[in-house]
Specification:
CATH architecture: 3-Layer(aba) Sandwich
Radius of gyration: 14 Å
Helix content: 25-40%
Strand order of the largest sheet: 2-1-3-4-5
Number of helices: 4
Order of helices and strands: EHEEHEHEH
Strand content: 15-25%
Number of domains: 1
Shape: globular
Distance between the termini: 21 Å
CATH topology: Rossmann fold
Largest sheet: 5 strands, parallel
């Protein structure tokens, strides 16, 4: 079972979430509509980067859900490709006994920066990321931190 959960202010991260969910045959869910996740789900959790803080919705989701022992793949978008949103999410879940099984980041359009992102190629990379994570988790293989 898979859960693809995202926060997206401008729609960039939603596009990546939809690509991942489509690859997995599930529906991507806006974090605002998710209370809890199934205990047996491999979670794909994504956010855009909005300044130097983790968005409230992601932070609250991490705090209110029982995540100990869970496997989570992180994904995100940012105008500058810094991956800071992934580091912020990983930092918050670090003390919760969560295994981060992979990370994916791509550009997202921000104002006049990176117009046209995420691109078709980046969305294909997100699909490959999802497929690779599922294969490795299913095979119980060690998983690289980046896609």
């Amino acid at each position: 079972m898979f859960e693809v959960i995202y926060y997206s202010l401008t729609g960039n991260t939603r596009k990546v979430a939809d690509a991942i969910a489509g690859e997995l045959g599930v529906e991507a869910k806006n974090i605002k509509a998710v209370d809890t996740v199934a205990q047996d789900a491999l979670i794909f959790l994504g956010s855009g980067y909005y300044g130097a803080v983790l968005v409230k919705e992601i932070s609250e989701f991490i705090e209110k859900n029982q995540l100990q022992g869970r496997k989570i793949a992180l994904f995100g978008t940012s105008g500058f490709g810094w991956e800071k949103e992934l580091s912020l999410m990983e930092k918050q879940i670090a003390n919760k006994g969560v295994e981060v099984v992979g990370r994916f980041n791509c550009f997202g359009r921000f104002a006049a920066v990176k117009i046209g992102h995420p691109t078709t190629e980046e969305l294909d990379q997100a699909r490959t990321f999802a497929r690779t994570i599922v294969q490795r988790v299913s095979a119980r293989q060690p998983i690289a931190v980046t896609a």
